[in-house]
Design goal:
Elements lengths: L5 E6 L20 E2 L3 E2 L1 H10 L4 E5 L5 H7 L13 E5 L14 H6 L2 H5 L5 E6 L2 E3 L3 H10 L4 E7 L9 E5 L5 E6 L8 E10 H13 L7 H11 L4 E5 L4 E3 L3 H10 L27 E2 L4 E3 L2 E2 L4 E2 L2 E3 L2 E2 L4 E2 L4 E3 L2 E2 L4 E2 L4 E3 L1 E3 L4 E2 L4 E2 L6 E3 L2
Parallel strand pairs: 1-4, 1-6, 4-5, 8-12, 14-17, 15-18, 16-19, 17-20, 18-21, 19-22, 20-23, 21-24, 22-25, 23-26, 24-27, 25-28
Antiparallel strand pairs: 2-3, 6-11, 7-13, 8-11, 9-10, 9-11
Amino acid sequence: MIKKEIVAMLLAGGQGSRLHALTKKTAKPAVPFGGRYRIIDFTLSNCANSGIDTVGVLTQYRPFELNSHIADGSAWDLNRIGGGVYILPPYMNQKEGTWYRGTAHAIYQNIDFVDRYNPENVIILSGDHIYKMDYSKMLDAHNEKNATCTIAVIEVPWEEASRFGIMNTDRNYRIEEFDEKPEKPKSNLASMGVYIFNWQKLRSLMLECAANKVEFDDFGQNIIPLMLERGEAMYAYPFGGYWKDVGTIESYWEANLEIIDPNHPLKLQDRKWVIYGEPLLYPPQYISKTGQVENSLVMDGCKVHGLINNSVLFPGSVVGKGAVVKDSILMANCVIEPGAVIEKAIIMPGLTVEKKVKVGDGKTIKVFEG
């Protein structure tokens, strides 16, 4: 039997309903981001850069585009013998056949997959966030404290703390309380949705709950409180880097425009911690004599004949002469015809904005669906 120190289980079945048009036809982790990536690329790249070579990707909502994007995992060097990346949709077995009812239930339905690798630990990840993180350092902290569970946390503004699972810890970061979206939070240490569990303890607890018909569908609602109640060694792992939940149109737009800044903490140009994605099969970008690009990201295959300011252009987009694109995101293969004005907007893939049409008022974010 293969023996792994750690296996990753990446939860990628989210519907992302607050992203509205962006997730009508695809799962949230497959939503394009930053000109050439998908949201899930950040978590998969973190795994590859952290030395985690076995990843189960648990899909559910509209998985086709996500599955096609991940393929055999070669973009992240995860097409390995004795490891690799695996797509794990819900399935029917002799005991049950249901949709994943929650984060923990999704792991429970895939116990057999994890058991194939007999790992000491399992790291539970989300495909919904933009960040760089070395999971191997978190694993070292987990092992040093002989923890049953270690939860990555980040300080959030106090006014936003009620949106998250909040950790209340002692001075050594041992978790004393876990409050899921508390009305009056006692701390601003928010869960990042990154958990490392001792696999045998998590496995035994889930099987026990299933046998006794005790609800265990969700880590935040069920598993973590139950482990705390039983006195398990549970620790918070403070993370000091950039982390963003792009779960709303506003946060998605903001995160895309933030990475234009060359001093942004993600440092997408950093060759020591590369964010990988599927290869781009487009010709080079073209900026004509009338084209002007200011503080923007313009991907391969784009043709610019107008003004681009503080914007992100995905591959294959065309901006006509006299057109203005400001504080906006153009998804792949958009056409902005001459004289059109785009301001503080997101243009969906493959759409055309006709001549002299204005999209957006520069105040609220407009999603253009044609």
